Amino acid sequence: MPLIIATILREEGATGVQTHVQELRRYLDRTGEPAVLVTPFSAGYLLAAPVFGLRLALVHLSGAASVLWYRHWHEAFLRRALRRRLAKTGECVIYAQGPEAARAALRARRGPHQRVVMAVHFKTSHADEWATVAIKSNGAVYRAIRRAERATITRLDGLVYVSQWARDALLSWLPEAADVPDAVISNFITAPRPETEVRSRGDLVTVGGLSPVKNHRYLLEILAAARRAGRHLTLDVYGADGRCTKALLRQARALGLQQQVRWRGARQDVRELLPGYRAYVHASYSESSSFAIIEAMAAGLPVVTGKTGGIAEICDDGIEARYWPLDDAARAATVLVDLLDCESDRLACSRAAADRFRRDFSAEVVGPRLLDFLLQGDRGPASMAEAGPPPAHAKLPGRL
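RE: above sequence
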């Protein structure tokens, strides 16, 4: 059965949604499964660029208006592209990356034989995510987004949650979503190629755009606390510039960390560079899942992180990771230094991280589970046996 992946985002990019789609497509290419990616930019409409570009002007006038413009027009162009594709397609599954893509798919499909399954990457609701940057929490636009999500999600043929935390967060305000067939299936990546020679690059590394939620400022506070305790640790930060870039540079200067912190920017080859560090550090306030941590574990790095969102489902304290507090830099520095100062513990954590990745987050392990849920009843019993049992909470009827 054909699989159509629908997203309002461009094909290339470093967001978690884009990485999820990229990894799924790599896996599908290797397995020979038919799949097509459809985005608002697929049809090549001449109006797309000026329509989307107008939002940049709206941002300066009204955050709420810019959000409404973004959501409406990305969904509208995606719906048109999907209609063209689905008119030429019979029975299929549309794997929608978020509520806007799911609503476009529901409006574009030709009938129930074209099933719509949505991935839940977001934290609680898109309304909550927009409320951190552009709209008022519980304001008119916030409520409108939640109404649209309720109307969309309750009509879906299936839901894929990237963590149990993401499922619980959605059900906390939308309990009706429990009636939709679902499964919790983690994000995954292709296993990295084994390195013949690893060049040392420094002590610590973190990956993530320079936005408030990633909490890089706290990492700088931890480095400063560790230095006051006599440890000069280096930190390489990989990630695109964002709202916090200037403030972080000022903070690093104020703390005297210019020689310890290196701002590496966005890189396409981060996965190849990760094995050269001693540990991966993470201070995000909120994560439904974390590709960055999964990539670090794939590289065999011990992880030091806060226990937020779905992170506790990726790595366990004292095994693959060490949990540090997100409100006490001095205590966090102690957690970090204790790990780095005991090489036997660091190496044990490193081995456990690599083992956990191979067991739980490799594309060859998780990819079949995702595909079997999306294409239920279409691939035969052999594929389910190969993929292993579904999660205990997954609802798997004969057909979605």
